[in-house]
Amino acid sequence: QEESGSWFGIGRPAVRVEPYWEGGQWWTAAPVDFRGLEKRAGAGWDPLDGVDYLVQQAKDQGAFPEMPPPPKWQQADSCPIS
User: Fold this and answer.
1) 38 three-class SS
2) pLDDT for the residue numbered 1
3) Is the dihedral of CA 69, 56, 3, 39 positive or negative?
4) In this structure, what DSSP letter does residue 12 have?
5) Pick from 25, 15, 31, 23: which is nearest to 63 by CA?
6) How far is CA 65 from the centre of its chain?
7) What are phi and psi of 20, to 5 degrees?
8) What is the mean pLDDT of the segment spanning 3-20?
9) Which letter does DSSP use for residue 52 in this model?
10) What is the enclosing helix (H) or strand (E) of 59?
11) Could you give the CA distance from residue 22 to residue 28 in angstroms, rounded to a whole number?
12) Which of 14, 73, 77, 82 has a 20 to 30 A CA-CA distance from 3?
């Protein structure tokens, strides 16, 4: 499984998953190759549903890497620079 500091792969073939911090919690995004999806149109399944399934399955099985809060994040009621 190939990994980087800013993304990790899940499934086979691996789907690139990019975590990002927003609203005090981690979220995930998976880049999409829309041209590649257009070429597979009409295949009888939606590959985006497959990515959602892989992400949920990895979460359910505890296969996500540990993602602690970012070092400079602290929980507060307001933005310190506003």
Assistant:
1) helix
2) 45
3) negative
4) T
5) 15
6) 11
7) -145, 150
8) 80
9) H
10) helix 47-60
11) 10
12) 73
How many Å apart are CA 34 and CA 26, to the nearest integer? 25
d(CA 60, CA 73): 26
Chain centroid, CA 5 distance in Å: 13
Residues recorded for the chain? 82
The residues with which 8 forms a beta bridge, in sequence order, are 3, 17
List the structure tokens of 67.
């993602």
- Residue linked to tokens 């190939």: 2
Instruction: Count the helices and strands in the chain (H runs, E runs).
Output: 2, 3
Mean pLDDT of the chain: 74
Q: How far apart are CA 3 and CA 10, in angstroms?
A: 10
What is the DSSP-derived secondary structure letter of residue 3?
A: B
